[in-house]
Amino acid sequence: MKVHLNRLAPVAITVLALCLALAVVPAQTATSDQKGPETLVIDGGRKGNITLPHREHQQNLKDCKICHSIFPKKAGSINAMKDDGALKKKQVMNKLCLNCHRALKKAGRDAGPISCSGCHKK
Question: What are the tens digits of pLDDT across the range 17-36?
Answer without folding.
Answer: 454 444 443 334 444 456 78
